[in-house]
Structures are given as structure tokens and as C-alpha cells.
């Protein structure tokens, strides 16, 4: 059978439409990609200029994160997100009574009480637009507080760089050198302000819990390659670690101020908290928030932090974002409720000499910050 010159294959028109549809789809995808990559900064800038509100910005960045698969939602996180907003109103936790406990103040004391207020370098993080500053103390939620202050200093750039509060690390922190000062005086001089212009806050922690957290963090989970010198050479021996910390602290306290030696990473994580933040002269000029180690009481810390942010006029949507971050995520070196921590704690509580060292090292922390000197056996 001969074909007519005008004959057309019955699938040709369908094929053409299919190809046109496919081309339109790829055009849309490419156009969307260009919009996300090149126009997103304009959206951020518009938001910064109040053309869009903060909630819209956070929502748009969340949506981008889900598109690119950077955040995987789950039912547990959704549930925690629902309850986290309650922290903006009140804390619903209550303290459990201490039963069958050890009172450090009643133990035989054979070790010298470490002097207070040896001056260490301050680590100030500022939110310049709100005249809010934090003096961070290692092992007192310091990485999280540093990230929060960075986020509030420039949340647009922070989010645009795909940073999150709970994934920040000290050595790669986004605001390194941007909103940081080595002392309150340096901050005041640089900003040409006076102390009364600022609200300064800091977090303090139960001394024993902070010491144990430092041990599990630095000696077990994040130990360096050179184990012979890391963790004072104690490897994973908590008794060796406590004795080394006490001896280091005692030695450092008695060195004349004009002859101070450089201190180690372990030192700043274990030296008394009253040595930080110029507490001797600024205790009454700072908002002091207690950082609770146990999750059952952690809401108390977050409630006080929210109050500080609200008092300085931080936008409510930014506060909600911060609360959601800190209640649904943990930092890479979190040691809460770990078996190693429980074992280290038990070893110390069963050794009266180690307990006396802890009490002697941190006597002034207990007195200054009002932490109980009693612990469950």
C-alpha cells in the first residue's frame, strides 16, 4: 500500500505535545532554580528592610531547607515543637526532693580552699542593635549561647549561610571575630558606650556537674590524638582527672597576676566559674541564669533566657525560632545522661577525698551562685 504525501503518523501530534510539555517542565525547574540561587539574597534584603516580616523569612528558609533535603522532619520533633512554645509563658517543671544524700559541707576537709576571683579572659558575645551581651563560660551551654548571639546579631546572614544554632561549633563558628570581645571594657570602648547601656547575662552551672561534663566531653567523646598529653594525661581515669584539675587550679591561683601562664583547653572548662566574667566587680550588674544539667529541669533555664530576650525587645518570631532550636536539637558534644557521665559521677560520690577536692575547688562557686552542696548517693 502506497502512502499519501499528506499522511501523518497518528502518534506524531501526541509526541509533539509531550515534548512541549516536557520542555515546559524543565523550563519551570530551571527558572525556579535561578530564582532560588540568585533572587534569594534580594528576598533576604527586603526582609531586613521590613518589606517582609521575620516570620515570612523563617518560613521561606524552612521551605528551602526541606526542598533541598537538609532537614528531615519526624513525629517526635513535631511533638517537641508543639510543646516548646510553652516556654514563652512559664516553666512547668518542679524540683525533686533529695533523698539519702551527701552534704559536701559536712565532710572532713583536708584540702586548701581555692581562692576566688582569679581573673581569666572574658568571652563576650554582643547583639549590638539591642545592647545585649553574654559572657560565656565553658561547659555552661557556651556553644549554644554563642550561636544564639550570632543568630541575633545578623540572623539574615546566619540563615542564608545554612547555619543552625545547634550545629555550630566553636572553631568554625559563623560570627568568629564579628561580635566578640575579650572583655567588657573592650566592648564598651569599641562601641563608645557605657555599662548602663547594656544588659549582660551569663549562665552558671552546678560545679560538680560541670566538672563531670568536662571530663566526659574532653576525655572520652572528643579526646585528641595525643592521649599522653590530652586530658592532663589521665586518659579516661576520672580520679586522675579530678586530682589533676585540683592541682592545676591550686597552682594557677597562687601564681602572681603579672606572671600568669597560658592555660590549657581543659583548664578553661574546669577552673572555677567565679574566675570568669569579672564576677568580683560585676556580680550585681549581670543577669545570672542557672543552667540545669538534667532535662527535667532544663525548661527553667530556657524560661529565664526567653525573659532576657523579651526584655531587650528581641522579635517574638526570632525567640520562637531559638526555642524550637534548643528544645529539638543537641550539640555534637552533649553529654547529658550518658553512661560514662553516670559512672564518673558515681566514682566521685563514693570517694570522700575526691569530694573534698571538688568542694575545695568550687567552694566560692557554691557560695556565690547558691548551688546546693548536697548530692544523691
Structure write-up:
This protein has 377 residues and is of the alpha/beta class. Helix content is 49%, strand content 7%. It has helices at 12-48, 54-67, 75-84, 142-153, 155-160, 184-191, 207-221, 238-253, 265-270, 279-282, 295-311, 316-328, 339-349, 352-361, 363-369, and strands at 101-103, 124-127, 132-135, 180-181, 199-205, 287-291, 374-376. The strands form two sheets. It has a five-stranded mixed beta sheet. Strands 1-7 form a two-stranded antiparallel ribbon. The termini are far apart. The relative contact order is 0.16.
Question: What is the strand tally?
Answer: 7
Structural class: alpha/beta
* Biggest sheet layout: 5 strands, mixed
Spatial strand arrangement across the major sheet: 4-2-3-5-6
Alpha carbon gyration radius: 27 Å
State the end-to-end distance.
100 Å
Instruction: Tell the overall outline.
Output: globular
- Chain oligomer state: single chain
Mean pLDDT across residues: 81
By DSSP (H or I, 4+ residues per run), the number of helices equals 15
Give the SSE order as H and E letters.
Answer: HHHEEEHHEHEHHHHEHHHHHE
Q: What proportion of the residues form beta strands (DSSP E)?
A: 5-15%
Helix content: 40-55%
User: What low-confidence regions span 5 or more consecutive residues with pLDDT below 50?
Assistant: 1-7, 29-52, 65-85, 90-99
Protein name: Sulfotransferase domain-containing protein
GO cellular component, one term: membrane
Pfam families: Sulfotransfer_2
Transmembrane segments: 15-39
